[in-house]
Amino acid sequence: MSERAPTAYAAAGVDIAAGERAVELMKRHVARTHRPELVPDASGFAGLFRLDLSKYTAPVLATSTDGVGTKVMLAQALDRHDTIGIDLVAMVVDDLVVSGAEPLFLTDYIACGSVVPERIAEIVSGIAEGCCQAGCTLIGGETAEHPGAMGPDEYDLAGAGTGIVEADAILGPDRVRVGDVVIAMASSGPHSNGYSLIRRIVADAQLDLHANVPELGGPLGEVLLTPTRIYAKDCLALAADMEVHAFAHITGGGLAANLARSLPATADAVVDRASWAPPAVFGFLARHGQVSQEDMEATFNMGVGMVAIVAEDAAERALELLAERGVPAWVLGSVIPGSGKVVMTGEYRS
């Protein structure tokens, strides 16, 4: 019997069988994320989620979408794909929680030049891990094969999340008051921002991603691939326990630009650099890339991944609760009369 001829689609570079195997491999990872509200859908064309409206008085849905930028190119260069999904979830859910919303579910989209089932499953395992850390369900997703548009080993990913918050519990600039305290939560590194600059520094300085760097505590590539810290559950715990007025997720643009988004037009936040020492990776990048402090601060989080603005009498309890939850945190500054700006003072601790 002669072998079956390949289909026209397969000849064009799209392997449907590989896609089906990838789906089978990722199922066990997706199952880890299921919340009780998930409604089975035998067709698999859509994700269904039942809202328990008895838990809310005036529920408001929140939504956010994001990707991980060129950090995926680092994952590809190192052939390490099990953590980049954590970064994806972090970028989405930690935007949601800024409003006080609890992340409910997330969908993902993976585009690749060629479907390698094991690699896709690795990526999804990270997405599932991120969803578990955030307490949300990975409700669905899509894997698309784009031969010709992307190289066989290239891929990109994006995600969209939905959360829920009571209308009278939405956090933001309108709640912030003069005298509030600004609390910093430590980042795990550059998170998922500034990687175009990072890759340029690595290339221009001819740095070896596999080389051990004692000051960083491990191989350069592994340090740069450290997944983004997910703060969603920690922020929700703070908001449930005390008077939180606003959060700020410190992503692209750095601390000052993102914190300013959570300030009213009548107040400034004064931030004291001397309150913390940025992780060694930022000094390493600045030195090897000859990047000025101004440019570093405008690109990277410099060690602050999330900020909470709380009532003055809640600051001590906020630090205690975060310590109990294993999140390094400190008083970053305070809110004063102003015009919606962030004023950075002092010099970083060494």
UniProtKB/TrEMBL annotation:
Domain named PurM-like N-terminal: residues: 60-165
Keywords, alphabetical: ATP-binding, Cytoplasm, Ligase, Nucleotide-binding, Purine biosynthesis
InterPro entries associated with the record: PurM-like_C_dom, PurM-like_C_sf, PurM-like_N, PurM-like_N_sf, PurM_cligase
Short name of any one Pfam family annotated for the protein: AIRS
GO biological process, one term: 'de novo' IMP biosynthetic process
Molecular function terms from GO: ATP binding; phosphoribosylamine-glycine ligase activity; phosphoribosylformylglycinamidine cyclo-ligase activity
Catalysed reaction equations from the record: 2-formamido-N(1)-(5-O-phospho-beta-D-ribosyl)acetamidine + ATP = 5-amino-1-(5-phospho-beta-D-ribosyl)imidazole + ADP + phosphate + H(+)
Subcellular compartments: Cytoplasm
Enzyme Commission number: 6.3.3.1
Xref: NCBIfam families: purM
Family classification: Belongs to the AIR synthase family.
Protein name stated in the entry: Phosphoribosylformylglycinamidine cyclo-ligase
